[in-house]
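ok trying again, last paste got cut off:
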Amino acid sequence: MVPADPAEFTRRLETAAAELAEERRNGQADFARTRAVGVGLLVLGRLDHARAVLTDASALADTTARRIAVTINLADAHRYADTDEGRAAAEPLYLRALELARLHVPERVDFALQHLAKQRIDSGRFAEARLLLDEALALRVAAGDAELIASTRQALAHLSAREAG
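nice, full thing came through this time. structure:
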């Protein structure tokens, strides 16, 4: 995720973060704004702050679909640190998101699979990643979403490149 205009994106995010801080002081913070600010911080690479805000968003999630989404975002905030510790911290979050999706929101299983697969690629667990991506691709092909199919095929190409060394 890279903003087309980083300066404008940063300006808007800082405004949204200030509004969120005011809402939190008043006890009025909502899930959508909190998660959006957390994801924005993630995009900018402000990972510690993103993890804190996404943890707050997780507490505000009022549906299983929202819990899945923010759990994946929080896992990404750990994984993007690109450290063994970050990848290890991300894994149980991705697994939880996948479990929730399989049990309650089957239309989100492909997202959870793909993000877990990326963690596996980053951890050098290529065979596991391939199985996860193959399952995600099958679900996306069945759903017929060309953009998501292309995303999974891109992830598989990335995996093949990493396997080749």
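cool. The chain has a mean pLDDT of 95. The chain is about 80% helix and 0% strand.
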